[in-house]
């Protein structure tokens, strides 16, 4: 089934100015789904899932987070945090006129979805969370991100050269996921250093106490044998959120290379979120 696709932009305002963010919209209607990408990737990583969801009648929006893709890339670490990204998602919903949406995300995107669920619960219809980065990912996250942060600060020419070399590569001639890998090389040293600094030294995700207060329908997808996205974090999150469902991927790349099973689970979940009456949020402390 063919679905309409449109590219749009919106502006998020703060006391430091305004940031331009770009997004792609798939399908139409009032059953909104917002998909958030992993760090240092772009919205294109969710293109196959967005098209599959939109083909079932869902209205899917996939933004480039600040510092990624075709959105603005400020070189100020204070511009980047999970809290700021959450505010941008709410600004996107306001821009679209969407009262609420199912929020989905991978890695950093999952953490941002959680942030919106605890700071703006009335805007969240459900949560589709793949490979969240929580308590058990702190050490591996630091080990993975620190070399790139150091390179971007001390040897920026290496990051900028990779960008210059990758930009002319025609993505249309590459296999889809090879193109996504090339997209990941399109970084700007100043913005990349600022992004990693802001994320590494800020709040990574809502605290456990806050996560336990989430009551919207939640589907958590865990990756086995993933050194960065520990399965124990997915297990922890599924145990914390009342009624959450846990689905284990058969491998780190299952959803990328053999997506049928997990895309089917995601589609059924998003559809069920919009069919079911909205669940009331439990009062804190009860």
TrEMBL record:
Any one GO MF annotation of this record: catalytic activity
All residue ranges annotated as the AB hydrolase-1 domain in the record: 32-143
Cross-referenced InterPro entries: AB_hydrolase, AB_hydrolase_1, AB_hydrolase_fold
Entry-linked Pfam families: Abhydrolase_1
UniProt protein name: Pimeloyl-ACP methyl ester carboxylesterase
Organism: Nocardioides marinus
């Amino acid at each position: 089934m063919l679905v309409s696709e449109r590219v749009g932009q919106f502006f998020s305002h703060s006391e430091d100015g305004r940031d331009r963010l770009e997004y792609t919209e798939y399908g139409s209607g009032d059953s909104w789904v917002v998909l958030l990408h992993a760090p240092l990737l772009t919205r294109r990583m969710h293109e196959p899932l967005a098209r599959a969801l939109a083909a079932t009648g869902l209205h899917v929006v996939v933004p480039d987070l600040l510092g990624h893709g075709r959105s603005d890339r400020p070189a100020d670490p204070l511009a980047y945090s999970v809290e700021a990204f959450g505010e941008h998602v709410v600004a996107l919903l306001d821009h679209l006129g969407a009262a609420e949406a199912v929020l989905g995300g991978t890695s950093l995107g999952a953490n941002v979805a959680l942030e919106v669920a605890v700071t703006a619960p009335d805007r969240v219809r459900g949560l589709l969370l793949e490979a969240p980065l929580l308590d058990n990912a702190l050490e591996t996250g630091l080990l993975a991100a620190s070399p790139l942060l150091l390179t971007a600060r001390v040897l920026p020419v290496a990051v900028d050269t990779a960008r210059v070399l990758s930009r002319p590569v025609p993505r249309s001639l590459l296999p889809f996921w090879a193109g996504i890998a090339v997209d990941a090389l399109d970084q700007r040293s100043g913005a990349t250093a600022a992004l990693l600094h802001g994320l590494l030294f800020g709040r990574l995700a809502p605290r456990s106490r806050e996560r336990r207060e989430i009551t919207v329908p939640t589907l958590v997808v865990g990756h086995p044998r993933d050194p960065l996205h520990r399965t124990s974090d997915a297990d922890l999150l599924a145990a914390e959120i009342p009624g959450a469902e846990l689905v284990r991927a058969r491998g780190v790349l299952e959803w990328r290379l053999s997506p049928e099973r997990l895309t089917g689970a995601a589609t059924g979940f998003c559809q069920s979120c919009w069919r079911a009456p909205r669940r009331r949020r439990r009062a804190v402390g009860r």
